[in-house]
Amino acid sequence: MEYTYTHWKDVALSQGKTPFDTLNDLFQQLLTIASGDVSQSLKWLTSLDKEYDITQNFDKPYSIAEFIEDLIDRGYIEQDTETSKMIITPKTEKGIRERSLNEIFSSLKKGGSGDHKTNFSGSGAERQPETRPWNGYEELVNLDATGTMINMLKHSSLDSLNLNEDDLQVYETDFHTQVATVLLIDLSHSMILYGEDRITPAKKVAMALSELIMRSYSKDTLDIVAFGNEAWQISVKDLPYLKVGPFHTNTKQGLEVARHILQRKKFANKQIFMITDGKPSCMIENGRLYKNSFGLDRKIVNKVLDEAVKCRREKITITTFMIASDPYLQHFVREMTDANKGRAYFASLDNLGGFIFEDYIKNRKRRVN
User: Fold this and answer.
1) Among 44, 167, 274, 344, which lies 20 to 30 A Cα-Cα from 38?
2) How many structural domains does the chain have?
3) How many CA atoms lie within 13 Å of 151's alpha carbon, on the beta-carbon side?
4) Distances in whole angstroms, Cα of residue 116 to Cα of each of 47, 247, 295, 320, 334
């Protein structure tokens, strides 16, 4: 697969970032493309430095070797005891999610994607009287000082006040219906065909959405399902490592797994977000893989439509984000959307995050009876 890099500009330096932060930001971008492969990402980083003299633009000497030492010392990468290879740590996994979130939020503009405006601005939400323990992710702008103090005094004395993280109490900032979301990510081979990297934007959106929910909508749930020849559930921490395989597209099983997950959720709002660039080309039939990569096989398509109808009956809305523009694929998406009474967006890779974030936050205000 080929990647195209734009000319390096030292924008980060003008914004007061340290040499480590500048290189780490680029390193995290490369990690996302390399599916968490530290060795490959550092090779790319070294090549970019040689071509664009990145480290030469710093105010004081700072080499790639020193950057790698700092990555280890600061706990961003470590050596795997079994393979002896360098791997990323949970600290870096979280950093990649945060970077993806900041990248998408910074690209959202008033009235940007589609014909609807974003429903948030900064912290944006109105403070409610209810309080809860701090979830460890969100900013402490809504700190309940009284509740926090009471929690601290329970294990402190007047001579020794000890504030622990578990003492922190915050005000609720949302009074909307809770939302259960399953994000479906297509890992079929077409996601990297023709020299276009479609999986990296999809991963960024998944990581950013998971970080958004953990920070700001802690009562919502997000489950993630990958699908190729079959569908399987993955965890948030697995997202940076997702790779496209030599897979066909089992859309039917992807929707089925998502529907079964949502059946267990006691929420008023249930939704499926599906990111795909291809037609359904396979399904499991009598325990075996039935596949047809040529055109739209009505046998496969009809099974997908059946699944869309089942979701509609269970009040599960399917929102499809199609990142391909082929007319016959758009026809299939419209057919499935009509069967589910859901929504569809034909999004470019550049505005995929904007579409999904606007739609997610908008849907939190929609109550299903």
Assistant:
1) 274
2) 3
3) 18
4) 42, 35, 34, 17, 20
Per-residue confidence (pLDDT) for residue 86, from 0 to 100: 96
pLDDT digit string (tens) for 137-175?
Answer: 566 667 888 888 888 888 887 777 788 878 888 876 654
Write the single-letter amino acid at 154.
K
CATH code, domain carrying 311: 3.40.50.410
Q: Note whether residue 39 is domain-resident.
A: yes
Q: Does 179 have pLDDT greater than 90?
A: no
Token pair for 103: 């990248």
Q: Are residues 283 and 252 in the same domain?
A: yes
Radius of gyration of the chain (CA): 23
Could you tell me which residues come within 8 angstroms of residue 332 by beta carbon, excluding any fewer than 6 positions away?
279, 280, 296, 301
Q: What long-range pairs does 140-147 form, CB within 8 A, spacing at least 24?
A: 140/168, 140/170, 142/170, 142/171, 142/173, 143/168, 143/169, 143/170, 143/171, 144/169, 144/170, 144/171
pLDDT band at 120 (very low <50, low <70, confident <90, very high): very low
End-of-domain residue from the set 53, 73, 88: 88
Residue 230 covered by a domain = yes
Cβ–Cβ < 8 Å for 110, 117: yes
Residue 354 lies inside a defined structural domain of this protein: yes
Domain that holds residue 271: 179-363
Task: Please tell me the predicted confidence (pLDDT) of residue 119.
Answer: 32
Residue 4 falls inside a structural domain: no
**167 and 186 share a domain?**
no
* Whole-Å CA distances, 148 to 168, 172, 217: 5, 14, 21
